[in-house]
Design goal:
It is built from eleven helices and 17 strands. By secondary structure, the chain is α+β, with helices and mostly antiparallel strands. Helix 6 links the parallel strand 12 and strand 13.
Length: 477
């Protein structure tokens, strides 16, 4: 079976986390709200109460998930699966994804083709390579776990990795400082699971099928000590923060005795306990799906994908297809409407242009596309007829006379003689100084006249005599 298909990790607003074993059961309902994810503990049962309590819970879960499109999330024990960091000597993610399966195959005692596997958190290293967290389990182990849960009337949509879920939820609840050494220990009634790492980076997940109990205490501590020495180097290692979770963590006497004995090994430890440890794993499983964690995982891949997930994906694809079709039809309708509107505007403009052309030319039939040419020819033919009217609209001699008098007044000129024709002006008179007549001549030039100015002697009243001959055409001399 190939790499993980993240489409099998559904989007959900409600999830049921299932922490199930033969001797313990915890079921938690989680849902989204404005204030964050809320939790409701539906069941915690031990020993003989498990088999009697689960049928009613299973019925409620089936009913609620059908009505709300929620999901159920179970876990594969760490003893049935494994995680391993792999490094590819490549810098391109696409090439690294093709190489990682071969790197994983080298570390497995069984064929990779018989496994469900995937790679999470592909990221660059300090030396320019790429690394990813491989998650793998045999298909037979996944099938056996699903069959075991089916005996309790449970059919989870998602089958998560137990250790990865504990670590991820721990980081969401109590984020670790950078390079802080941490270990999350789940004490079950039939197993112990621990996930260790630095900062927010998971390094190892381990498990033993022995629970912490007085008759197993020696074996349990030996296994824990070996794990600590293999994960955290004693030389120069800072304090390791140990977080208790799981139903076994509520036994204060047993937990205190374990802490006293663990303090004897060389690695320094500080102990903490998560709130509500009995439902920690169930809450972790539900929370990872609701938060769409980048480290989310589902062993139910390929042929083992839950039928409901296949159905929901098919419905979503159909809705997407119908949405695309509807959007395409809307665009076609809008385009057709715009085309018709544009055509109507063009037709109205053509009709108006033809009507104006008929009014100008007097023709009843106007060839389309020839409107402007016909109108220009008709106007050219009609120009002699319009000439008297156009001439009458032009400024006359009286207008020129009034303008000449206003200009003379502005320059304080005294006119003795004014002869005005449409294309000629003759002016004689006196100015208060030499500059005044020159300024008046410049004014006439600006009005389009060709001016000839002659200045003569000064009169008895100290005014300068001048003569201006102006006409249209020629140059001033």
């Amino acid at each position: 079976m190939g790499m993980v298909d993240h489409n099998t990790i559904p989007f959900a607003t409600e999830a049921f986390g299932l922490d199930l074993s033969a001797t313990y059961a915890a079921v938690v309902r989680a849902w989204r709200s404005r204030s964050g994810i809320q939790y409701e503990t539906i069941l915690t049962a031990s020993d003989q109460a498990v088999s009697s309590a689960l049928p009613a819970v299973a019925e409620r879960i089936q009913r609620d998930t059908r009505s709300s499109h929620g999901v159920t999330v179970g876990a594969l024990p760490v003893t049935q699966g494994s995680t391993r960091w792999l490094t590819a000597a490549l810098s391109q993610p696409a090439k690294a994804r093709r190489v990682l399966p071969s790197l994983l195959d080298v570390h497995l005692p069984f064929p990779l083709e018989s496994c469900v596997y995937g790679f999470l958190g592909l990221q660059p290293t300090d030396d320019g390579q790429l690394r990813a967290l491989a998650v793998v389990a045999r298909e037979a182990a996944v099938s056996d776990r699903l069959a075991e849960m089916a005996r309790w009337n449970m059919d989870p949509h998602v089958l998560d990795h137990e250790g990865l879920a504990c670590w991820d939820y721990h980081q969401q609840s109590l984020p670790s400082a950078e390079r802080e050494a941490s270990i999350v220990v789940y004490l079950g009634q039939d197993r112990t699971v621990w996930a260790a790492g630095y900062g927010d980076r998971l390094t190892h997940t381990h498990a033993t099928q022995r629970a912490l109990a007085p008759h197993t205490e020696d074996t349990w501590h030996e296994r824990i000590t070996r794990m600590l020495r293999g994960t955290f180097s004693a030389a120069g290692t800072p304090t390791v923060h140990w977080y208790w979770t799981g139903p076994g963590a509520t036994d204060d006497v047993l937990r205190t005795a374990a802490e006293e004995r663990l303090q004897r090994q060389p690695i320094p430890l500080t102990f903490h306990m998560h709130t509500e440890p009995s439902t920690f794993l169930a809450r972790a499983l539900a929370c990872r799906v609701l938060n769409r964690s980048p480290w989310a995982w589902n062993y139910r891949q390929g042929t083992m994908t839950h039928p409901e997930m296949v159905r929901r994906r098919t419905v979503m694809l159909r809705r997407t297809a119908w949405t695309g079709i509807a959007a395409g039809l809307c665009l076609m309708a809008i385009n057709l409407g715009v085309q018709r509107y544009t055509q109507a505007r063009e037709q109205a403009a053509d009709a108006a242009l033809a009507e104006w052309t008929r009014a100008i030319t007097g023709h009843d039939h106007v060839i389309r596309g020839q409107e402007v040419l016909l109108a220009e020819r008709a106007l050219a033919d009609q120009q002699p007829t319009w000439a008297p009217l156009l001439a009458a609209q032009q400024p006359g001699v009286l207008h020129e006379w009034a303008a000449l008098l206003r200009a003379g007044a502005r320059h304080e000129l005294h006119f003795d003689v004014i002869r005005l024709r449409p294309d000629e002006i003759q002016v004689r008179g006196t100015a208060q100084d030499w500059n005044a007549s020159e300024t008046f001549a410049q004014h006439l030039e600006q009005q389009g006249w060709q001016v000839n100015l002659q200045q003569q002697d000064v009169t008895d009243t100290r005014r300068v005599r001048f003569r201006i001959d102006a006409h249209r055409g020629g140059t001033r001399s």
